[in-house]
Amino acid sequence: MGELSLEQARELLLERVQRIEEKEEIFLCDAVERVLAEDVIAGHDQPPFPRSPLDGYAVQSEDLQEASRLCPVKLTVIDEVDAGYVSEKRVERGKAVRIMTGAPIPDGADCVVGQEDTDYGEDIVEVYERIRAYENYCFAGEDYKAGTRLLKKDTFLGAVEIGVLASLGREKVTVYRRVKAAVLTTGDETILPGEKLSDGKIYDSNLYMVTARLSMWGVQIAGREHVSDNAGEIAEKIKAVVKGADIVITTGGVSVGKKDEMHEVLRILGVKRIFWKIAMKPGMPVLCAEYKGKLLVGLSGNPYGAAVNLELLVKPVLAKLSGREDMRLQRIQAVSESDFSKRSIVTRYVRGYYIGGMVRIPEGSDASGVLGSMCGCNCLIEIPAGTLALREGDKVWVVLL
Ligand code: AMP
Ligand code: MG
Predict the structure, then answer these.
(1) Residue with CA at minimum distance from ligand 1 atom 16
(2) d(Cα 258, Cα 251) in Å, to the nearest integer?
């Protein structure tokens, strides 16, 4: 078993990558989950004009000093203004403008009385409530003022940020380009979905799982192929995809079997490995190298091993490349609702389901070749090296997926 810890392995990769600085201007509707590459300054007040927060009458508060249900104040309604329109009238003493939510408050008025505090009068309105100056009055710039820096460069754009950019009238926005990854899976035994299963063959789940996960992290798939167990062919494929990718991820062929050709691939490419094997289970046999300035990350062919490596080793690298703070690993404490009786010689990661401070291990095998029991799981339970068994009620650390 290799002595390199997961943290050390991660560091060895992280120190070799730089955050991507290339930018591109894209439409706002495509910008969700991208990283902003500009400071965004408000070009106008939001809202740009004082507006009414409710349906009612824009009036002068002075007129309502004595208003009550017993002694209503009568005002002359001189105009009506809907949202999206402007009243040209000025509200003088004794006057009112019927106003709808979102409409600009006309000149002269300093408050709005809600319609439920009136008799809904059309020409003359009776007001039953005293309203103070600037009550029910949204100031121009209530949300933000012109000149305010609303979003900083490097901000991850979620739905709210997209909404704020839209409120500014931005149709396009400058973001960093996405990370590009090429994914190659190896194995003479693996065939692609759509083909007919025959003796000795299994379907290639890694190609789909890995690319699906990368897509979820906003990575652009710059190549996606299954290659047979032939070192020469794999090396050729890597040469072909490396130019258009920031990182090349392979699965399979990283153990010590006769057909574990990734070692030979590195020889053909003329590169030395950065490391091979991490003291963890699953995902021990990882083989990493640098080729033409790009990382080559060779994951185990075992789907669960590959999934764990992808989360714990590759994701932080992608986070650094893309400048996505939100992709940092989230490690939290939980209480186990399950027993896990296998001994852990090295740090072990067990698939789990976390909710409300509790974590549960699913039924079925936790073996590195087993993917099915991971369906619906949302975390990896970290079992420290040297642990004899995990017991229900034990405190554990979990990494959220
Ligand atoms: P390897 O790492 O190539 O020695 O493969 C380890 C185990 O994972 C073997 O049982 C393989 O058949 C299986 N395996 C390898 N590649 C894939 C794949 N792309 N999809 C599903 N299983 C795979
Ligand atoms: Mg193989």
Answers:
(1) 301
(2) 16
